[in-house]
Amino acid sequence: MAAQFIVWHHFSAYGPMSDTMTLVWPNLVNWLYEDARLAVQVFLVVGGYLAGQSVMHKPIQQPLALIAKRYLRLVPFYVLALALITLAVSLSYKTIHNDWLPSEPTAWQFLAHALLVHDLFGVEALSSGAWYVAIDFQLYALLITSCYVLQTANHKRLSIGVAVLCVASMWYFNRVKTLDIWAIYFFSAYGLGVLAAWAKRSSFDAALFWLTALLAVGALWLEFRSRLTLALVTAVWLVIKPTGLVQWTPMKRVVHRLSNSAYVLFLTHFGIIVLFSDMWNKSHFYDPYMAFALTAFAWACSVGMGLFLHEKAEVPLHHWVSQKSKQLFLRLTSLG
Fold first, then answer.
1. pLDDT tens track of the chain, all 336 residues?
2. Overall pTM surpassing 0.90 (yes/no)
3. What is the 3-state secondary structure (H, E, C) of the chain?
């Protein structure tokens, strides 16, 4: 659901069709632009929750190997998606002259994206989702480093350390807009997800989560932020949600497939927006209802493309990279 909201947010933010739809549905387009992007907070909390689960019951002995694995999990398809988007942009330059269209990439610009440092060096983004991949990698690296430095036999020092980072982000760093290129800005949401996963490990961790949640309410009293509110609600739900066997229904299978392809959808839908904007300009359409119909069709194409590329490109690419990188991880392990 969060992934779909982000796609619709980007359809409202980029392209001539959203401008045309505004003539009839200004409130809807404005809501998609202003509020639908808050769904990123769900990504951050769930990302922290899954990362927290992955390190919950095992000591971190080789942090560099784990960080390298995360990099190789994120980047190969990310680079492929950027290449596809660059191709879509190159095909649309003649008809799209808006400032939201990325410029033709240079070798340094592409390298900066591949190394996930484009925002840190002020390099123009090649896609709407590029910033999130870099932040996700930073957050994971920060968590793994914290686990390696603070881990003890009973985990209490580590849990307290993550909670302190989370609270510091809530109360200060998340309020400084210029820090939004660094992990600490987003650790308020990511850390809540980590603590939500660990809350099921022991009564101490559960108490620490609820204390952090209470301090989050205090941070909202200090400065209300809808993004932090959604992150808090998501984390609380992950802690209190009922557990049990999953009863697979056709609808749940569809949702499961869509969830698995959410990363690919997130990375590739900007190219669909570019191509449909190019088609709209070439066709000289002006009808708002036609704009809405084409946007809905473009959204369906984005979802279909995400499902197709997830199964035919991302999964095979991930398996191939995993096999080829085993020697690298063995070397990192021996260095450790």
1. 999 999 999 999 998 899 999 999 999 999 999 999 999 999 999 999 999 999 988 888 889 889 999 999 999 999 999 999 999 988 888 888 777 888 888 889 999 999 999 999 999 999 988 999 999 999 999 999 999 999 888 889 999 999 999 999 999 999 999 999 999 999 999 999 999 999 989 999 999 999 999 999 999 999 999 999 999 999 999 999 877 656 778 888 889 999 999 999 999 999 999 999 999 988 888 899 999 999 999 999 999 999 999 999 999 999 999 887 877 666 656 655
2. yes
3. CHHHHHHHHHHHHCCHHHHHHCCCCHHHHHHHHHCHHHHHHHHHHHHHHHHHHHCCCCCCCCHHHHHHHHHHHHHHHHHHHHHHHHHHHHHHCCCCCCCCCCCCCCHHHHHHHHCCCCCCCCCCCCCCCHHHHHHHHHHHHHHHHHHHHHCCCCCHHHHHHHHHHHHHHHHCHHHCHHHCCCHHHHHHHHHHHHHHHHCCCCHHHHHHHHHHHHHHHHHHHHCCCHHHHHHHHHHHHHHHCCCCCCCCCHHHHHHHHHHHCHHHHHHHHHHHHHHHHHHHHHHCCCCHHHHHHHHHHHHHHHHHHHHHHHHHHHHHHHHHHHHHCHHHHHHHHHHC
Separation in Å, CA 273 to CA 22, 170, 251, 298, 328: 17, 34, 27, 7, 38
Number of C-beta neighbours around residue 285 at 10 A: 16
> How far is it, in rounded angstroms, from Cα 47 to Cα 336?
27
Task: Report the Cα–Cα distance between both ends of the chain, in Å, rounded.
Answer: 41
